[in-house]
Design brief:
Number of helices: 16
Largest sheet: 6 strands, mixed
Strand content: 5-15%
Distance between the termini: 44 Å
Oligomer: single chain
Shape: globular
Strand order of the largest sheet: 3-4-5-7-9-12
Radius of gyration: 21 Å
Order of helices and strands: EEEEHEEHHEEEEHHEHEHHHHHHHHHH
Number of strands: 12
Helix content: 40-55%
């Protein structure tokens, strides 16, 4: 296998495929066996392509898609699990780079189209939801299941979830519930629904359009899209009761409200929601809820900086090792029997939660460039972290 050097990793050049077709640029996430999960190599290559094309005057339209049956299934959990040996420090670079990239995806200057055919979960959905035109099909499956394995709503989703209708964001963050293609369009996480057999032809048409004019791109997509009508059993038909039950201040109050409503007629959906919450990490649930609540009053930059802190503090097991235990139970041993520490919501020390949210020193925060003239500044290699040894980093990021 031929490899070459890009930035901080030796990479297989086939992990991300980039095509330049006159004024159109196509990027394909190409780890189909891993459901296009986010790896250090994928982040490095995707960032390089997107930066190059945003600066390229000839590039007008960028199409993002995934190979195989997934768009992107989120972060590569094995990478994070292996990071346990270094107390999470070995994951610092890829975490920093991906959060930094999330900012650029959300604020990208060229017209983007995401063709989301298949699984789009966790951090992978961060490559879908913020895109100007995100096209989904009947095979698209979305969820943010991070709390189920001791993590938190990340990659910009404390910002995105907190801006969904009502309290749908809290519901999705705590239960990890799945939404299908039509539902994603209905709540604004995607813009168009196109049947799966038309996706390839739509891509061809967009390429032949050879323009980034947003009205023209929209017109082409609308030729292929169909009007969204929710199925009768869609969870979105329960919006009013979701708003009521998930508007509580604490996870304990939400659970109590769900239990009180579960036996009432028409509330069959509550049972699975309760089960999902009760089998999830108590610490992960509390962090996720607080993060989404905070996100309601935070900017995109503030959310990403906060999520970067949360991610690194969780990886460093600052108050709990639940993430590693959750990954072990789901993907390593696959016994689906995690032993959470602490084991219940009541035993989570709320005072300790403040520790994982506490800001880092200024130069150790995620350096997001917010000035137009410095759009692509703040990269990892130019940050304070790049000059520190991995063994020293835990000392610098302290609370």
């Amino acid at each position: 296998m031929t490899t070459e050097k890009m930035g901080f990793v030796d990479f297989d050049p086939k992990v991300v495929l980039g095509e330049e077709i006159d004024k159109v640029r196509v990027v394909t996430l190409n780890r189909p066996k891993q459901l296009n999960a986010i790896s250090p190599e994928l982040v490095a290559q995707l960032a390089e392509y997107l930066e190059k094309w945003e600066k390229d005057d000839k590039a007008e339209l960028v199409i993002i898609k995934g190979a195989g049956r997934a768009f992107c299934a989120g972060g590569d959990l094995k990478v994070f699990y292996d990071g346990k040996k270094s107390n999470g420090n070995s994951c610092l670079e890829v975490v920093y780079r991906f959060y930094w990239l999330c900012y650029h995806i959300q604020t990208y200057k060229k017209t983007q189209v995401a063709l989301v055919h298949g699984i789009s979960m966790g951090g992978g959905a961060a490559l879908m939801a913020p895109i100007k035109f995100s096209v989904v099909s009947e095979k698209t499956v979305f969820s943010t299941p991070e709390a189920s394995f001791g993590f938190h709503t990340d990659c910009g989703f404390s910002y995105i979830h907190s801006r969904l209708p009502g309290r749908l964001g809290e519901y999705l963050a705590l239960t990890g519930a799945r939404l299908k293609g039509k539902e994603l369009v209905a709540v604004g996480l995607a813009t168009h629904f196109v049947s799966s057999e038309k996706i390839v032809e739509l891509e061809r048409r967009l390429i032949s359009l050879n323009s980034g004019d947003q009205n023209a791109v929209k017109s082409v997509i609308e030729e292929f899209s169909t009007e969204v009508k929710l199925d009768e059993d869609s969870i979105l038909n329960k919006q009013s009761i979701i708003d009521e039950l998930f508007s509580k201040d604490t996870v304990e109050e939400i659970v109590k409200s769900l239990e009180a409503e579960a036996t009432k007629e028409g509330n069959g959906w509550i049972g699975p929601a309760l089960k999902a919450i009760k089998r999830s990490s108590p610490t992960g649930l509390k962090i996720a809820l607080r993060s989404v609540h905070d996100g309601r009053n935070q900017t995109l930059s503030e959310c990403l900086k906060k999520e970067f802190r949360l991610t690194m503090n969780i990886l460093r097991t600052l108050i709990s090792g639940d993430m590693y235990e959750g990954i072990r139970a789901v993907t390593i041993d696959r016994d689906n029997a995690p032993k959470w520490d602490p084991p219940s919501l009541e035993k989570v020390d709320n005072a300790k939660l403040d520790l994982v949210f506490k800001p880092f020193e200024k130069d150790l925060e995620l350096q997001i460039p917010e000035e137009e003239e410095s759009r692509w500044d703040g990269k990892f290699e130019n940050s304070a972290y790049a000059n520190q040894k991995v063994t020293e980093e835990a000392e610098y990021i302290s609370v």
